[in-house]
Amino acid sequence: MSGETDWAANPLIITVAPTGAEVTREQNPAVPYTPSEIAEETVAAHGAGASIVHLHVREPDGTPSADPALFKETIGQIRDRCDVITMVTTGGAVGMSTAERAAGLDGDPEMAGIEVGSINYGDDVFITSASETRELSAAIRERGVTPEVEAFEVSHVESAFRFQAEGILEDPIRINAVLGVPGGLGATIRNLSSMAAAIPPGTRWSVTAIGRAQRRILAAAILFGASGVRVGLEDNVYLEKGRLAVSNAELVAQIRELAEGLGRTVATPTEARRLLQLSPAVDR
Ligand code: ZN
Predict the structure, then answer these.
(1) C-alpha of residue 222 to centroid of ligand 1, in Å
(2) Do residues 266 and 50 touch, judged by C-beta distance below 8 A?
(3) Helix, strand, coil in percent for the chain, rounding step 5
(4) pLDDT in tens, 83-96
(5) 244 pairs with which residues across the strands?
(6) What is the pLDDT of residue 1?
(7) How many angstroms is it from 25 CA to the middle of ligand 1?
(8) Cβ-based neighbours of 57, under 8 Å, separated by 6 or more
(9) 264 CA distance to ligand 1 middle (Å)
(10) Beta carbons of 273 and 85 less than 8 angstroms apart
């Protein structure tokens, strides 16, 4: 498994996912909706140790949005205030068209998530056909954005490398293993270990765990030598059982403390850019 033997050379890359498409203020009043709120939460999370922000945007009433202007405004505000790596979703929300899913690319992010397969998502079906992956990947590449494969299943890891062999995804592949979506791979240590085993050595990979098992799964991910972990209100609104997180920064601080307690240092955005082989921020 990647990174297991050279822990010191692989500071942990923490991604914060402050908003998402599904979680609401009814579930946690700290969920940011507007560009200023998202920027404020991101800057604080960066201060707490996040080196990447994974962004969705919302209409003022909290509805998931595909408005490029909202992405531009949000990323602009973040970039004015800190050097965190900006990543947009191209998963969007269930049912969005391909064009809507690509809207975040208009915000000129450094990275973009990309789906390479479909899953059931609760009662919905989250569809990404191969042709849609090809289309989104082309849009990502045209803009000089770096993709991160969102793998909800072990088969998605295999698909990523099939798309690479086809020339659809460039080398190196970066993977975010997402566990705990109802309908996808559950958030268990055994499933994490299947994911880890499917990812070729040397690949940069991070782990997202949705829901209550988050901290346990991310602790295991750190020990498995994952390059990064993702936290934030998109994935989990609780800091601990029965206690809502007051902010995204609080969730970042908690995972940072856990990593450091295990002897793993945390990457700065500059270190994360180098580890993930992104273009330097000054070029953007
Ligand atoms: Zn997301």
Answers:
(1) 21
(2) no
(3) 40, 20, 40
(4) 999 999 998 888 88
(5) 238
(6) 46
(7) 16
(8) 19, 35, 38, 64, 65, 67, 70, 71, 74, 104
(9) 25
(10) yes
